[in-house]
From TrEMBL:
Membership in a protein family: Belongs to the FlgI family.
The name this protein goes by in its record: Flagellar P-ring protein
Alphabetical UniProt keywords: Bacterial flagellum, Cell projection, Cilium, Flagellum, Periplasm, Signal
Example of a GO cellular component annotation carried by this entry: bacterial-type flagellum basal body, distal rod, P ring
Quaternary state and interactors: The basal body constitutes a major portion of the flagellar organelle and consists of four rings (L,P,S, and M) mounted on a central rod.
Subcellular location: Bacterial flagellum basal body
Function according to Swiss-Prot or TrEMBL: Assembles around the rod to form the L-ring and probably protects the motor/basal body from shearing forces during rotation.
Pfam families with a match to the protein in the record: FlgI (PF02119)
NCBIfam families, per database record: PRK05303.1
Taxonomic superkingdom: Bacteria
GO biological process: bacterial-type flagellum-dependent cell motility
GO molecular function, one term: structural molecule activity
Length: 346
C-alpha cells in the first residue's frame, strides 16, 4: 500500500469555511417570516444595501429561505479557483428545490473572508404530499452547489520554506510507523525519517530537495508499505452487521446456541344446543393451543481453533446460525477468553 493512502502531511490540509446567506426563487416553500424573524431581517437588510427602501416592513413572501453555507478550502487553493459548497436550511422551509443562493461571504476561523459562494442549488431529496398522505425521500432541506464558490483570499503558506515535515498515520500503530520510517530511510539512503510515536513520523527534507519540497513529497507518497492493524471485530447490533479483521484468531472452544420458542394459536369453536332443544343458545367457546420448543435436542458443537479468517468464518457457518445469533456467539467466545481480538459493539 502506498504511503499516501495511510498517512497525511500535518500542514497540507483543508480549512473549514462557513457563511450565512439567503436562497431565493423557491416555489412557495420558503421560510414563514412570522416564524423566522431572522429571515425577514436579512431580506430587509439585503434590499437596503441594494438601495431598495421598504416603507412597510411587514413582508409576506414565501420564496426566500435563510441558510448556512459551508465549504472546505483545499490546501494551496489560489485566487479564482472554484470549490464546492453545501447549503442547509435554518428556518422552517420545507424544500430548497428550485432555489438560488445569493452571494454569500465564507469565513474561516480567523474571521477573514476567503471565498464567496453563489449559484443554483442542487437538491437530491424530494418531498410530496396530499391531504391524506405525504412522502419524503432524502433531505430536501440540504443542497449543494458544484463549484459554487470562488476563492478570494489565499492562505499564507509556502511549501518550499519547510526544512522538516510531519506525517500522521490515519490509523495510528507503532508497527506501521516504524515500517514507514524504514521505507523512507531505505529509499533515500539516509536517516531522515524518525517515528516519534504511534501516529507521527518526522522527516527532514534532504539538501538536494531544498526548494523542491513538492517533488520530495511526491516520491515519499509513492513508497509502498504494508500497514499493520489490530485484530478487531466490529459489531453493529442495530443492523446486525459484523466485520471481522483479517488477523482475528480464536482458540478451540465448544459452543451451543439454544433458545425457547413459544407458539400460541387461537382456534375458537362454536357450541350449540342439540336439534329441537327447548333451552340453550349458541355460543363461541375459546380454544387456545400453546406449544413450547426449548431446543432440548440441541447439542454442544466443537468450534476448532481458527488460525485464519477463512477458517473462523467456516467454523461459525458450521454452527448453522444467522447473523444475529453469530453476534451472541462472538460475545460469548470473547467472554470465555477464546477470541483473541478487540470486540467493538456499536
Amino acid at each position: 500500500m502506498r504511503v499516501k493512502d495511510i498517512t497525511s502531511f500535518e500542514s497540507v490540509r483543508y480549512n473549514q469555511l462557513i457563511g450565512y446567506g439567503l436562497v431565493v426563487g423557491l416555489p412557495g416553500t420558503g421560510d414563514r417570516l412570522t416564524n423566522t424573524p431572522f429571515t425577514e431581517v436579512s431580506i430587509i437588510s439585503m434590499l437596503q444595501r441594494l438601495g431598495v427602501a421598504i416603507p412597510d416592513a411587514n413582508l409576506r413572501t414565501r420564496n426566500v429561505a435563510a441558510v448556512m453555507v459551508t465549504a472546505r478550502l483545499p490546501a494551496f487553493a489560489r485566487n479564482g479557483s472554484a470549490i464546492d459548497v453545501s447549503v442547509a436550511a435554518m428556518g422552517d422551509t420545507t424544500d430548497l428545490r428550485g432555489g438560488m443562493l445569493l452571494a454569500t461571504p465564507l469565513l474561516a476561523a480567523d474571521g477573514q473572508v476567503y471565498a464567496v459562494a453563489q449559484g443554483q442549488l442542487s437538491v437530491s431529496g424530494f418531498a410530496a404530499g396530499g391531504d391524506a398522505a405525504s412522502i419524503t425521500r432524502g433531505v430536501p432541506t440540504i443542497a449543494s452547489v458544484a463549484n459554487g464558490a470562488l476563492v478570494e483570499r489565499e492562505m499564507g503558506f509556502n511549501l518550499d520554506d519547510f526544512r522538516s515535515l510531519r506525517m500522521r498515520l490515519r490509523n495510528p500503530d507503532f508497527t506501521t510507523a516504524l515500517r514507514v520510517e524504514a521505507a523512507i530511510n531505505s529509499y533515500f539512503d539516509a536517516r531522515i525519517a524518525k517515528a516519534e510515536d504511534l501516529s507521527t513520523i518526522v522527516i527532514a527534507v534532504p539538501e538536494r530537495f531544498q526548494r523542491r519540497v513538492a517533488q520530495f513529497l511526491g516520491e515519499v507518497e509513492a513508497l509502498r508499505v504494508e500497514p499493520d492493524q489490530l485484530a478487531r471485530v466490529v459489531i453493529d447490533e442495530n443492523s446486525g452487521t459484523i466485520v471481522i479483521g483479517a488477523d482475528v484468531r480464536i482458540s478451540e472452544v465448544a459452543v451451543t446456541l439454544g433458545s425457547i420458542t413459544i407458539e400460541v394459536n387461537e382456534q375458537p369453536v362454536v357450541s350449540q344446543p342439540a336439534p329441537f332443544a327447548e333451552q340453550g343458545e349458541t355460543v363461541v367457546v375459546p380454544r387456545t393451543n400453546i406449544g413450547v420448543d426449548d431446543q432440548s435436542e440441541a447439542r454442544f458443537q466443537l468450534l476448532p481453533e481458527a488460525p485464519t479468517l477463512q477458517e473462523l468464518v467456516a467454523g461459525l457457518n458450521a454452527l448453522g446460525v444467522g447473523p444475529r445469533d453469530v453476534i451472541s456467539v462472538l460475545q460469548a467466545i470473547k467472554s470465555a477468553g477464546a477470541l483473541h481480538a478487540e470486540l467493538i459493539i456499536e
